[in-house]
Amino acid sequence: MGTIKQGILGGFKGKVGTVVGSSWKGIAYMKGQAQHVKNPRTAGQIYHRDAIKAVTMALRPIIPILRLTFAEYAHKMSAFNKAVSVNYKAAIYEAGGEPHFNYEQLILSKGTLKPFSYLAINDMGENGNYYLSTISDGNQYPEYDGLIFAIYDVTGGVWQTGIIRQHFHVGDTLEFHGMPLLEAKEYLAYACTYDPASGKVSDPIAEVEAYAG
Q1: Is 0.90 topped by the overall pTM?
Q2: Into how many domains does the chain fold?
Q3: Do the Cβ atoms of 71 and 64 come closer than 8 Å?
Q4: pLDDT tens-digit profile of 143-165?
């Protein structure tokens, strides 16, 4: 919208070509005419909208975590919208002509920190006392400032997320209390390294397991 101060057109009302003129509190302004889509319900458009909805619904329960894990790459959009964009490309698949979300392909984070290769999350007593075992890579024991993880209960459709804000070395075991992990259920787990001071994260840790016993 542009305010008209002077010029050959001056202030005007109504439509001139693709421009609509009007005034507000004595100030003349003009704006482009809204463009209309001839057919907003083509098969491709419907599929795209349904796919966006599927990603949004899948990620909505972990919005607080995604605001951290995609903040570094959220240029000109919110961190959650960036997470939706990345996971739209990574985790949507088509079946029966409809889009579905593949939780096994979910991407938890996008960042520049270095991740390690493997994390095991074990609830040995099935009481929610997690033991997060970070596995060393050869003789290397790098230090990290924190960790973010998420566990998805495939059976119940419930999420558990956690943020660990403490220094640790790869090879250490960390503790966290959350919802119990039960042997009768199936879980998917995701994690990334995290620096609370800078807000930076890593790309996802390559292999993360969560289990009871």
Answers
A1: no
A2: 3
A3: no
A4: 999 999 999 999 999 999 999 99
